[in-house]
């Protein structure tokens, strides 16, 4: 199976959906922040490994706690994934922090601040 095949793309989407459901509803670890989302998932073609990009809306402490909680619950997550998705191999999950959402929110705030401080041009003068 090639990396960008249709089958691999379908598996990535299904693993992402199930992983988000497991993190949102089944893990009771208090270290995992409630605003944790699964941005993307990339399962290797041999189905042995999986990279999951996670985003947490919170401060640095919430991010490090969430990452530690997910790493400690990776066995439970893999077990639930195996029971939910029928794959030949259940991939070993590696969690990677993705700061793109926080970066986007920060840039949006900066743009709003700049727009707020700009002088207003009258349309009638033109």
The total domain count is: 1
β-strand number: 3
The major pleated sheet works out as: 3 strands, mixed
Helix/strand order, N-terminal first: HEEHHEH
Using the alpha-carbon principal axes, give the shape. Answer: elongated
CATH C-level name: Alpha Beta
- Placed side by side, the strands forming the largest sheet appear as 1-2-3
How does this structure look, described?
This protein has 126 residues and is an alpha+beta fold. 49% of the residues lie in helices and 17% in strands. It contains 4 helices and 3 strands. Strands 1-2-3 form a 3-stranded mixed β-sheet. Strand 1 (36-43) and strand 2 (49-56) form a beta hairpin. Helix 1 (6-25) crosses helix 3 (74-84). The radius of gyration is 20 Å and the shape is elongated. The model has no long low-confidence stretch (mean pLDDT 87).
